[in-house]
Amino acid sequence: MSVPSPTLAPATGGSVPEKPLAATNSGGLAISITLAEPLLFLQGFERSEYTNRTPAMLRGTLQVHVAKPTKIKAINLTFTGRGRTEWPEGIPPAKDDYVEEKELISHLWPFFNAQFTPDLSFGADMVLDTRGGVYQSPALPPAIVRERERSSSLGRRSLSATGRRSGSRSRDSLDEKNEKIAAVNASSNKGYKMFPPGEYSYNFELPIDSSLPETIECHLGSVKYELEATIERPGAFKSKLVGKKEVTLIRTPAEASLEVGEPIVVARNWEDQLHYDIVIGGKAFPIGSTVPVAFKLTPLAKVRCHRIRIMMTENTEYFCRNKKVHRIEPVRKFLLYEHQAANGANENLLGDLDDGTETAGPIEFEFNAKIPGCNTVARESQKLHPDTTYANIKVHHWIKIVLRLSKADPNDSSKRRHFEVSIDSPFHLLSCRCTTANVSLPAYNRFDRSSSSTLPPCPCVSSEAQPDQDVDRINLQPRPMHLLRRPSLNPPPFDADVPPPPLVTPPPGYDDIVALDGGYFGSMNVTAHDDDDDDDSDRDVSLGFSRMSLSPNRSDASLSSRSSGSSSSVSA
Questions:
Q1: Domains in the chain, ordered, with CATH?
Q2: Is the pLDDT of residue 526 over 80?
Q3: What kind and span of H or E run contains 77?
């Protein structure tokens, strides 16, 4: 397997990463990891949706900053994913174990190993020398490189002897130091290599299959992915330099899925007393967003509606030992919106139906129910968790609408019996980072070259900290659905429409067409006269098409053509 050859990048100031993942006490060696995409999105909730889907790509660069010559044995990068479930009461039947961990994925990039990497190569894709701005071509075979180094050293010595180059002593001393390092690396068989000062970049790439579970952080279970960089140094008292960086995977609906735009429609009758139509404006919503809900309530009898509640429930289940052990957490309920009747109209949202009127028209409502965000809960245990696809941690949500109704008691008309009608429907709760700005492609006029590769802040927190600057979030608010509107009882008059602007070249009027001789249909015939050698009589021939002149000065719409000796004859 070929090892990537080092390349020198131009000097950009030699800036050290602001917050390295790991560094030595002396600061001579530091590690940092830069990701091309700070968030990776996996599409599809069902197996049929992500079976043949293109995987997400984990891409980035491992950067090793060397401030002084350092001996290094190996440089490795590992990507791992682990699922963990906790059982405080113990895992039955023995109840000796309290935690179960499962490895989901593991991948190793052996970037550098002193025993296998060729001489004069550090396995890096790019090396930025601390001296600055010189690009170095790909590494040549060791024999050619040594020959070039020998010839360049002789040339530098001759220039130094003749004094034709200023400041050559300092540069020669630096070159001699590098030659010593190269000599040590060429002749060393001790299992390490001397790295000169510079910044070494190692690029990596890995496809992430959509069947892998997303990142999960629940009360008694989690799924985490991380990159772990390791640098091994020789010496009994020098430990490994280890740096870790977490990778976040987010689950989103599939591109062809209709869950985001397709509404949930419910139309039912309640005991021949009330007919209700309910429309929920989608089947998937991110945390911190609003859920548009429209109601159309048609009373069929003297029924009262006192209250409307929109709620959401979260169900969490844990599994272990190949699903032989199962635990169900208590259902968590969240009130999203509540609308109560005023005290004036007999506490009835449908109006006063007890005034002798047998029938009443439908009543419509539209509400925007707010899903709690990450910044609206006081404790970590009260936070909402997105839907999951991991087999050992199942989280799913239901939206619940409760109507508080009452009707007259058949045994005693002075009393009323109260009921609560509950309408439940499953829906997908997405991560708060699963917004249109993150999932969709960016607009061409909003491309930002200075975008950082670090994890962006939570939209729930950023929207509260900067309410005036969050223009995209305001524009993406769902507008009223208007799906249950009645026709207007006072439409505008017909003459209220604005006529279209006049044409620059208007077509001919009707009077201009009928004013032609023979009328409109008379212009469909064209007369042609033929001259024969034996007979000079004229024959009228109908050509079956119209040659109509729209000129106002021409009174005859038929064209007459007389053939001569050189003209072409027209036969009937």
A1: 22-139+192-252 (2.60.40.640), 264-475 (2.60.40.640), 506-572 (no CATH)
A2: no
A3: strand 74-86
